[in-house]
Amino acid sequence: MQSLWKDVTFGLRMLAKSPGFTAIAVITLALGIGANTAIFSLMNQVLLQRLPIKNPDELVLLRAPGPATGHISSDGDSAESFSYPMYKGLRDSNSVFTGILARYGFSASVSSNGQTDRASGEVVSGNYFEVLGVRAAFPEPNPTSS
Questions:
Q1: By CB count within 10 A, which of 23, 47, 91, 116 is most buried?
Q2: Any domain includes 138
Q3: Dihedral sign of CA atoms 136, 122, 45, 30 in order
């Protein structure tokens, strides 16, 4: 224990003798620790945390394989999709899944205060939040209340 204390005091004296080196070492350590913390926080949220929905391990993605099966439009990446009538047929005749929802992602230009930016959005079916077991951020207003 005595030897450890001598080593610590010797190290502190050496750092005090060269303040420029000490400042660079401390800044380098701070940046490294900060960057690692930020990267881990991002990876933890994106890769390690479960989705904040009801039963995320039971989600299934349905696709319509084949050339343009179910397509009503093409977005250029030959993505597999269902038309809305096809979705309604699957939803109404479903006897396997708890619920079936539909979603379609799109890009849009959003303008505010003279500034225009690109944004991503989704058109979703009416049962989207119910099937996922979550609440909408802005719930639909109650039509009976005035």
A1: 91
A2: no
A3: negative
